[in-house]
Amino acid sequence: MSISIELLEEHRMFDGWQQRYRHFSSSLQCSMTFSIYLPPPRDDSPPPVVYWLSGLTCNDENFTTKAGAQRIAAELGIVLVMPDTSPRGDDVANDEGYDLGQGAGFYLNATQSPWAAHFRMYDYLIDELPLLVQEHFNISDRQSIMGHSMGGHGALMLALRNPQRFRSASAFAPIVNPCQVPWGRKAFTAYLGADESQWLQYDSCHLLSSLPSEQETFPILVDQGDSDQFLADQLQPAKLAELARQRGWPLQLRVQPGYDHSYYTIASFVEDHLRFHAARLF
Amino acid sequence: MSISIELLEEHRMFDGWQQRYRHFSSSLQCSMTFSIYLPPPRDDSPPPVVYWLSGLTCNDENFTTKAGAQRIAAELGIVLVMPDTSPRGDDVANDEGYDLGQGAGFYLNATQSPWAAHFRMYDYLIDELPLLVQEHFNISDRQSIMGHSMGGHGALMLALRNPQRFRSASAFAPIVNPCQVPWGRKAFTAYLGADESQWLQYDSCHLLSSLPSEQETFPILVDQGDSDQFLADQLQPAKLAELARQRGWPLQLRVQPGYDHSYYTIASFVEDHLRFHAARLF
User: Fold this and answer.
1) CA gap B192, B85 in Å, rounded
2) Active site: which residues (chains A, B) (predicted)?
3) Looking at residue B102, what is its pLDDT?
4) Cβ atoms of residues B243 and B209 within 8 Å
5) Which residues of chain A have a CB within 8 Å of the CB of B36?
6) What is the pLDDT of residues B80-121, one digit of tens each?
7) pLDDT below 70 — which residues of chain A?
8) Interface check B18 vs A, CB under 8 A
9) Given an 8 Å threshold on Cβ–Cβ distance, is B66 in contact with A65?
10) By CA distance, what is A71's nearest residue in B?
């Protein structure tokens, strides 16, 4: 089974290639775009991959254009894959709020109408997109994942549910406990229904607490600006850090003084994140 | 005489500050914004400044968000100042084309109706903005200038007309001979009128050829992608490089294979440009 992908644009960057593709997603039942950075070839061994998941309102291009990550990926020899944040299109359900519907998929499989028909980002990211990337690009099976805000939730949640898949996970200002904060409660109610027991499978705090004690660990790095306007109400990464401490999970939470929720923060620390992942990927 | 400036936003970035300001410009007779990056303080000596001039359709935020220059500016201790590309506002003349009017000021003083009332970017950049920046920020009088495309034209033209002001100049894909290419001829006809002798004062090829032989030189660095769609029709930086060679002016033109006209190219080489300027600023 071969899925075709269409090259939309490509740009030479740091002696590698920044590309953008469109393809039809069988998980999401719509056309999707993703961006990918291919570093300059180093030797015969295929490079590892770091997935980046973006936050609310973003698509595959925010990180591509604003984070400055390609410089480090080129140096380290890492492929970066930037998916979109939700299914898209006129046929896809949407909402007037910026925090529900298109641009706000929360990386889960929706079960409720009108969302269930397309909003299956969990399947897309765990099953479909990695296979498609593996098929079309010369990459190794070594993978790590990182993200920002809603995408930080996605990165941590996907890694904690699939610890055999990811060698490390990191996040900027992640939503770590979506069951308990306004963004998460609004989205989970809409996508998953009122039965909160169905929400837990997508809550990083719950997932970390529930992993069997014999579970092999992978390291997690979290950066959180202390001038982030969403810190107190939506993010609270110290909750996850405390749960990690209690069970001896290797999680480092760095509180960055004066930094906010923007891509200026991501740009400032993305080098640390990629070097953190590289230590596990090579 | 003190001109007030209004802080619109600020973000911590690489331990310095990315800020955006609004002020009323007496040169342009309208409200203007500019962005500035203030690196972390190094010692008691005030930092030098590098001005960045953007290309057609851009404002002060394109370079700010996409180039990744603040990382290097933070390391080197350089202030970056990003002006807008033209006067702005409902009272300011405009055109339907992307290459004339707002967003396309070409860094000159217009003499023709309806442009002359506001389009005085040359005066704004040489007289007004540097004074305003000097008044509000702790900076040295050491300055260099760089830019992209129309802004590469602006950087080279301003430096060649004011060699005592700038220690170095650099450009990505600059319009070096606007009198002879479609973008320049359209803009100069509109802003300066049909008398082409009035255009020469804004043409870098003409300016470099006309400088007196005893003129003290300053170094110029130009990066040009050979996959730039505008290379043949609009840019032709080899023209300027040949004139520099003929008169022994220190200009390096680097042709970058596979690179295009985008910010992906700028991001790939901006570190080289800032280190080039730093060698003259410190």
Assistant:
1) 17
2) 149 (charge relay system), 228 (charge relay system), 261 (charge relay system)
3) 98
4) yes
5) none
6) 999 999 999 999 999 999 999 999 999 999 999 999 999 999
7) 1-2
8) yes
9) yes
10) B268
- Tens digit of each residue's pLDDT (9 = 90 or more) over A138-197: 999 999 999 999 999 999 999 999 999 999 999 999 999 999 999 999 999 999 999 999
Query: What is the fold of B6-281?
Result: Rossmann fold (3.40.50)
Q: Which residues of A touch B260 (CB under 8 A)?
A: 11-12
Instruction: Tell me whether residue A223 is one of the annotated catalytic residues.
Output: no
pTM surpassing 0.95?
yes
Q: Is A228 a catalytic residue?
A: yes
Instruction: Give the whole-angstrom CA distance, residue A211 versus residue A226.
Output: 29
Segment 251-270 of chain A within 8 Å of chain B by CB: 256-260, 262-265, 267-268
Residue B24 φ/ψ, nearest 5 degrees: -85, 130
The complex scores an ipTM of 0.95
Instruction: Provide, as residue numbers in chain B, all residues whose Cβ is less than 8 Å from the Cβ of A267.
Output: 13-14, 68, 70-71
Active-site position among A84, A99, A223, A228 = A228
Asked if B263's CB is within 8 angstroms of A12's CB, the reply is no
Q: How is chain B split into domains, by residue range?
A: 6-281
Asked whether residue B1 carries a pLDDT value surpassing 60, the answer given is no
For residue B79, which amino acid is it? V
Q: What is the DSSP letter of A41?
A: P
Alpha carbon distance B65, B72 (integer Å): 14
Amino acid at B7: L
Active site residue A210: no
Residue with tokens 């719509």: A30
